[in-house]
Amino acid sequence: MIEAKSYYFDTFQVDTPTLERLVAEALGSGGSYCDLFFENTTYGSLLLRDGAVTSGGNHVDFGVGVRVLAGEKTGYAYSESTAWPDMLACARAAAQICDKPVDVNPYGTRNPSRGEPNPHADRYPVQQSWRAVSMERHLPFLQQLEADIRSRDSRIVKVIANLAFQVSDILMYNSARELKWDTRPMGSISVSVVFQEKGRTENKSTSRSLRCGVEMLTPALAQEMAQEVVKGIDDRFAAIRPKGGQMPVVMGAGASGILLHEAMGHAFEADFNRKGTSIFHDKMGQQICPKSINILDDGTLPGNRGSVNFDDEGVPGQKTYMVEDGVLTSYLHDRISAAHYGVRPTGNGRRESFRYAPLPRMRATYMESGSAKAEDLIASVPNGLFVDEFSNGQVQIGEGDFTFYVKSGYLIENGRLTAPVKDINIIGNGPEALADIRGVADDLTIDPGAWTCGKEQSVPVSCGIPTVLIGHLTVGGE
Amino acid sequence: MELALLTQEEMGLARHCLDYAREQGAQQVRITLTKSLLNLVGVLNGEVDKVSHALDRSLQLQLFVNGRFGTFSSNRLEKEGLESFIREAIGTVRMLQEDSYRKLPGAQRTVKNARSGRELDLYDEAIEQLSAEERRKLALRSMAWPHKDQLENGFTLIAEEGEYSDSVFDSLTLDSQGLEARHSETSFEIGYESTVADPEGNHFSSYWWDAAPRLKDLQLEGCAARACERAAAQIGPLDIPGGTYTLIVDSECAGKLVTPLLNALGGYSLQQKNSFLSGSLGQKRFSPKLTLLDLPCTPGETGCRLFDSEGVATREMPIIQEGVVKTYFLNTYISGKMGLEPTVEDATRVKLMSTGECATQEELLKKVGDGILVTGFNGGNSNPATGNFSYGIEGFVIKNGQRVHPVREMLITGDFLSLWSHLLYAADDARLCMSKLIPTLAFADVSFSA
Question: What is the pTM of this model?
Answer without folding.
Answer: 0.94
